[in-house]
Structures are given as C-alpha cells and as structure tokens.
C-alpha cells in the first residue's frame, strides 16, 4: 500500500487510489465538478489541480494515481490562483440565475466561488445565450446556459443506464449538452442525472419551484418500492404553519451504500412518495 504526503499529512492508501480520494482520506477536501467515484474519469473541469513534487506542471488529482513517496501540495499560491482562473472561465457565460434557480443552496458553483473565486469580475462582454427550461424527458428539465460541461450526465447515460440519450455538441463556448435526435431522457434511472449535476443545469421537474433547499430537513431511510431496499434520504418540510397535517415529504434522494444501490436509485422508487 503506497504512502504519500499531502499538505504535510502522511496517508496510506490502497494501490490504484486516486490522489483526490487520498486527500479525502487525509481530511482534505479538494474542489471538483466532473469527478464522480461511480463514473469514469473525464478530467475536464480542472478544479482539482494540485502540485506534485518533481512534476513541473500542475496535475489533476482525479486522474493521478497515488504512488509511494509522492509529495502533494493543495494550497500553494499557484494552485489558489489557478482555481480562481478556472472559476472565472466557467462563469464567463454563466447566467445570474441564482435567485430563481432550484440548485441555489446546494450549488457547487456558488460554494466554490465563495471559497476560491475572483470576486472582481473582469468580463464586460455579453454572455452567450442558449436554450433555457427545455423538457428533455418526463422527469428532467435542462437549462443549457447554466451547464459547465462537466459531462457527468453524459457519462451516466453511457456507463450506468447504458441508454445513451445525452451528448455534448458544438465546440468552444458554443458547446452544450443535448439529446441525441429522436430521443428523450426517459430511462428508468433518469432522475440520477439531477443528483449528480453540480450546478442547476439539470433540475427535477417534480421538485421544481416547490421549496428552497434550506427549508428542507432530512432523515435516512430505505426505499420500500421493491426487494432491493435502496438506501435513501427523505427530504421533508415542516408545514405546520400552513397545513394541519404537519410535516410533508418533498423529495427522495439516494444514499450511498456500496453493497446495495451504490449512489443511485430508480425513478419508480424516487417518485413513489406521491402515492402514499
């Protein structure tokens, strides 16, 4: 098992572990958008860049495997400046939709910008316009202007649901997530793309505009929809001020369990709260 040092902390990990997971084991949270432990490595958001001793350029921690004796730094001036530049690039065409965006309150773009951002904007040009509020399936709404092209949703439909409805079309700042011609996002696991979207590009049509997330409470539970018993979280709101019956379920979200459902849950289990 290789031992490496991250920001002065020595950590031992299993062979093949990515530096981003090794840092997490050492109690260091690296920012990222495109990385997801249940999907293949894309390495396209560039937020998790780190300095590795004896390597002249910054390396992406999501792709780099930990090796014995590796020395990693995550908080140098060069890294912090680079994070600011990456966020500035991602926000060049991002709309100021936060007041009306369902992702507000659990948006990684908001969180990382407040922690790492370059607060004085240098952009004076008009933002590029793309399609907004596009119904791409019975459960999911797409807002192309908010998308940061992390490709998580595309990899999910390629690798997990294996239905391949989504792809990235065009080039440069005209690139956008799109449905393949003649398809819609209607596979039995389509709601998971909302869970893994780090921004407000993919939103749940069932949850849309129901409740701000900071008003929600959460309880751990198990889905009763079938014999698998997917682990999940029940997000509910205290409605006693408005409803005589008190607390009301607002949405269900999958809860990670390596041996049962991993990070996912099916749409039938996700939306069955409406029938109880």
Structural description of this entry:
The protein has 276 residues and is an alpha+beta fold. It contains 6 helices and 13 strands. It has helices spanning 19-25, 77-90, 108-116, 152-159, 192-196, 267-270, and strands spanning 3-6, 9-12, 49-52, 59-60, 71-73, 134-135, 140-142, 166-169, 176-179, 202-204, 217-222, 231-238, 247-254. Helix 2 (77-90) crosses helix 3 (108-116). The relative contact order is 0.11.
Write the H/E string, N to C. EEHEEEHHEEHEEHEEEEH
Proportion of helical residues: 10-25%
The class by helix and strand makeup works out as alpha+beta
Distance between the termini: 49 Å
Beta-strand residue fraction = 15-25%
Mean pLDDT: 90
Tally of helical runs: 6
Got a strand count? Answer: 13
Give the overall shape: globular
Strand line-up in the sheet with most strands:
2-1-5-3-4
Poorly predicted segments: none
What's the main sheet like?
A: 5 strands, mixed
Rg on CA atoms, Å = 20 Å
């Amino acid at each position: 098992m290789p031992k490496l040092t991250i920001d002065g902390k020595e950590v031992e990990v299993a062979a093949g572990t990515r530096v981003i997971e090794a840092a997490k084991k050492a109690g260091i949270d690296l920012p990222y958008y495109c990385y997801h432990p249940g999907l293949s490595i894309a390495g396209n958001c560039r937020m998790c860049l780190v300095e590795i001793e004896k390597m002249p350029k910054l390396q992406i921690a999501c792709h780099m495997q930990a090796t014995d004796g590796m020395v990693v730094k995550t908080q140098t001036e060069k890294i912090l400046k680079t994070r600011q530049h990456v966020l500035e690039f991602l926000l060049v065409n991002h709309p100021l939709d936060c007041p009306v965006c369902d992702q507000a309150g659990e948006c990684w773009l908001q969180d990382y910008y407040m922690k790492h951002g370059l607060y004085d904007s240098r952009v004076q040009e008009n933002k590029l316009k793309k399609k907004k509020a596009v119904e791409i399936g019975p459960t999911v709404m797409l807002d192309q202007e908010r998308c940061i092209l992390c490709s998580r949703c595309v990899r999910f439909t390629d690798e997990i649901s294996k239905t391949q409805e989504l792809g990235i079309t065009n080039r440069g700042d005209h690139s956008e997530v799109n449905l393949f011609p003649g398809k819609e996002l209607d596979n039995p696991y389509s709601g998971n793309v909302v869970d893994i979207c780090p921004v407000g590009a993919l939103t749940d049509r069932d949850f849309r505009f129901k409740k701000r997330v900071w008003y929600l409470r959460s309880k751990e539970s198990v889905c009763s929809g079938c014999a698998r018993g997917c682990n999940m979280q029940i997000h509910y709101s205290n409605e006693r001020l408005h409803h005589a019956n008190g607390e009301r379920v607002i949405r269900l979200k999958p809860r990670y369990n390596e041996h049962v459902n991993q990070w996912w849950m099916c749409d039938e289990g996700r939306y069955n709260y409406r029938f109880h």
